[in-house]
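From the methods appendix. Each design record in this collection lists the tokenized structure first, followed by the designed amino acid sequence. Records were kept in a plain field format so they could be parsed without special tools. The example shown here is representative of the layout used throughout.

RECORD:
FOLD TOKENS (97 positions):
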């Protein structure tokens, strides 16, 4: 019985880690959409999302400079979103073992 519980606990921990990664990626995607659709940067929601998305982007902003603003935004924050999904997926698999 304890063996089954420990596996269930690992599975739950893996799901939590995966959920956190998905949340981080979602924040990045929302920020991308707000920038691409020209949201009002003085709006409180935009400011809140920016305050979360910019630190979560880590070292990705400025990594590539394609010359096109839309592509620049997608690369900067899209790569960060993919990074969070991949890293948390790896961590969740390690926890699940």
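DESIGN:
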């Amino acid at each position: 019985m304890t063996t089954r519980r420990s596996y269930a606990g690992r599975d739950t921990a893996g799901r939590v880690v995966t959920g956190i990664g998905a949340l981080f990626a979602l924040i990045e995607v929302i920020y991308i959409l707000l920038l691409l659709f020209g949201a009002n940067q003085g709006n409180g929601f935009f400011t809140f999302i920016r305050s979360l998305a910019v630190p979560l982007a880590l070292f990705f902003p400025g990594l590539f400079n394609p010359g096109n603003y839309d592509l620049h935004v997608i690369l900067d924050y899209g790569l960060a979103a993919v990074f969070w999904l991949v890293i948390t997926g790896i961590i969740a698999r390690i926890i699940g073992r």
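APPENDIX NOTE: The CA atoms of residues 30 and 49 lie 8 Å apart.
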